[in-house]
Design a protein that fits this description.
Elements (H helix, E strand, L loop, with lengths): L4 H40 L5 H25 L1
Helix pairs in contact: 1-2
Length: about 80
């Protein structure tokens, strides 16, 4: 039964969806680590660029969460 083209494409599609969700989950984890690193850096080094770096790091997390939600609803 698994040798028909339809079942093979369904299995491939399912594995592809799981792979996308796994990669976006790892991507979100990286974004959270990125925010923590920026927080530590901004506390250690006082620079006028610090607020902009925090905004960029939070925007990165929001973007990754949006990609994750897009994959959940699209796939």
């Amino acid at each position: 039964m698994l040798d028909t083209p339809t079942s093979i494409s369904l299995i491939f599609t399912f594995l592809l969806k799981i792979g996308f969700l796994l990669l976006t989950t790892i991507f979100i984890g990286f974004a959270v680590l990125f925010i923590r690193q920026v927080k530590v850096m901004t506390e250690a080094v006082h620079d006028p660029l610090n607020p902009k770096l925090r905004i960029i790091s939070w925007a990165y997390l929001i973007l990754t969460a949006a990609i994750f939600i897009f994959f959940i609803f699209y796939l």
